[in-house]
Amino acid sequence: MSERTERREGRERVPSQHSMSERTERREGRERVPSQHSMSGERLDGLSVRDLRVSFDGFTAVDGVSLEVPAGDIRFLIGPNGAGKTTLVDAVTGLVRATGSVRFGDQELLGRPVHKISRLGIGRTFQTSTVFEELTVVQNLDIAAGARRSWATLVRRRRSIPDEVAAALETIGLAGRADQLAGTLAHGQKQWLEIGMLLVQDARLLLLDEPVAGMSHEERDATGALLETVSRDRTVVVIEHDMDFLRRFARSVTVLHAGRVLSEGTVAQVQADPRVQEVYLGHPVDAGSATSGLEA
Ligand SMILES: Nc1ncnc2c1ncn2[C@@H]1O[C@H](COP(=O)(O)OP(=O)(O)OP(=O)(O)O)[C@@H](O)[C@H]1O
Ligand SMILES: [Mg+2]
Fold first, then answer.
1. Residue 128's pLDDT band (cuts 50, 70, 90)
2. Which atom of ligand 1 is nearest to the CA of 256?
3. SS3 (DSSP) at 132
4. What pLDDT, in 10s, does the model give residues 142-156?
5. How far apart are CA 141 and CA 7, in angstroms?
6. Which protein residue's CA is at the shortest distance from atom 31 of ligand 1?
7. Whose CA is nearest to atom 2 of ligand 1?
């Protein structure tokens, strides 16, 4: 049995209920260390990026970025178009060459091929959906889980659903749509399916590139709740432009600008930072005036 299968099968995926006060405590900055254990006893790892640099033909898209995302955080990565957000995620996941260091727990990721990084528990979504539209929801999850079944078996209607797939279906709220073709899902549901595909792969670091772009209000709320659920035993990094969504669900924020870290802290700290206001508005916010996307 492969290490992955073992890990998958040994895993309890029943989402536990948190009280409101526990959640508030988490959001308001309970101390987080680089590695810790979740309530279910799973090891939680943090992401540590040091002096990361990515250049394309002499143009430096990521220019010496260092950041620490503690285990179990929901870190939002924001910044204007071209700031280097997606390139940073590409570097972490091995899609572009980079210098510096990227560690998840005690593992160095830089220099490893994409599939090895993925096997270390790093999962990412793209802004455009990558689900198989002609297959059902459950078939998409099965493929992601790497179930060793032939395609003929796979495309036949399933009689029983593997535990980890069933658990992911519940977590992403698509249990009632298991047999629906993924191509017929609403936009938001496709993003949830993508997240579910990372869950069945046992991703312990989720990097989501603009997950709520194009979503309705209700879909955003559901996505935020999903992020809170998955972060109980995973570390989550979200690239997002939607400030309302950020204010509601970020536990911490890093602002990138022109390939560098411009500001970092809580939502309130980042919103109050004149350098951030300058980049977003072209000028700092005068007290009592101006409305910006950054205001609470
Ligand atoms: N493969 C590439 N070759 C050349 N330049 C690239 C490549 N990928 C990204 N860039 C450039 O690197 C810079 C950062 O791009 P990136 O996609 O990381 O920005 P971003 O912060 O994700 O922006 P957005 O909010 O628009 O998605 C941009 O100037 C972009 O044009
Ligand atoms: Mg981008």
1. confident
2. 21
3. coil
4. 999 885 455 555 555
5. 17
6. 82
7. 56
